[in-house]
Amino acid sequence: MDDHDHKLVWDASLYQENSSFQFSLGLDAIARLAPRPGERVLDIGCGNGATTAELARRVLPGGEVVGMDVSSEMLAQARANIDEAGLSNVRLVHQDMATLAIVGGFDAVFSNSSVHWVSRLDDLYRRVHAALVPGGRVVVQTGAAGGNALVDALHDAMAEPLLATLFAGFTWPWQFCTPAEAERILEEAGFSAISVEAHDKLTSFPTEAALIGYCRAAALIPFLSHLPEPRRPVFLECFARHLLARNGARPLDLVMPRLFILAAKP
Ligand SMILES: C[S@@+](CC[C@H](N)C(=O)[O-])C[C@H]1O[C@@H](n2cnc3c(N)ncnc32)[C@H](O)[C@@H]1O
């Protein structure tokens, strides 16, 4: 992760209000992990802790979940959510997952909508492998390469005459893999029983405000924070216009290509 990423400030309440899509993907990922009572699970990029809490319920009795995130705003929200849920088997850690240096101890490493924010996925999966016990498993839900109107609309907006020079030198924030790339990275990290499922996940928003709220709560953060304050409304307006145009006849539908990655440490 580079310096640019470290400066990202998440609005945890905006995320909380606009992340039902991520949460539903998280439940799909948890179903694939099938956590068992007594297990120790590491949730990397745990965000507001909604999926972390679900994991924590499923490892009871006797199990523990460690939620790791680089954003102190998200961790504060996670603490509040976990306390409100009355769960005492969750530990939250403020750490960049790119510097994960735990050796063994976890039955599973889980991640929902987070690992694509890390620049070196090969290095990350080697670290995830090291954190697992032999026979431990990893389940990751993440963005997939290609066919993404939101990404295309971001490129459209960045190329607008009023904005293009401001984005010169901008570091693209996400690593979206093809299934073949993900399989190769996991294999090289030492995993076996690798399965990569690609799904185009559709989510429909009731209003344009809800659609843009979803985008602002996560995807737009690096782009808006890169711009000087007075340019942000122009970017938002351009992005919304391009996204609605790219969505065509169903402007409030968003198709998000995702990967569900499952593997085990031999
Ligand atoms: C879209 S949110 C997903 C949160 C949560 N997993 C969920 O399912 O709702 C992405 C999260 O990844 C975190 N994140 C991004 N880069 C990270 C890194 N290098 N290390 C740890 N967390 C990171 C962000 O702070 C944010 O909380």
The percentage of residues in β strands lies in 15-25%
Number of domains: 1
Mean pLDDT: 96
**Strand order of the biggest β-sheet:** 3-2-1-4-5-7-6
Order of helices and strands: HHHEHEHEEHEHHEHHHE
Number of DSSP-assigned strands: 7
Instruction: List the ions, cofactors and other small molecules found in this model.
Output: S-adenosylmethionine
Structure annotation, total helices: 11
Which consecutive residue ranges, at least 5 long each, have pLDDT under 50?
1-5
Cα Rg: 18 Å
Distance between the termini: 28 Å
Helix content, binned percent = 40-55%
Identify the CATH homologous superfamily: Vaccinia Virus protein VP39
Q: Mind telling me the CATH class?
A: Alpha Beta
General shape: globular
Topology:
Layout: H1 3-6, H2 12-17, H3 20-33, E1 40-44, H4 50-58, E2 64-69, H5 72-84, E3 90-94, E4 106-112, H6 121-131, E5 132-143, H7 149-158, H8 179-188, E6 192-204, H9 208-217, H10 221-226, H11 232-247, E7 253-264
Parallel strand pairs: 1-2, 1-4, 2-3, 4-5
Antiparallel strand pairs: 5-7, 6-7
Bound molecules: S-adenosylmethionine.
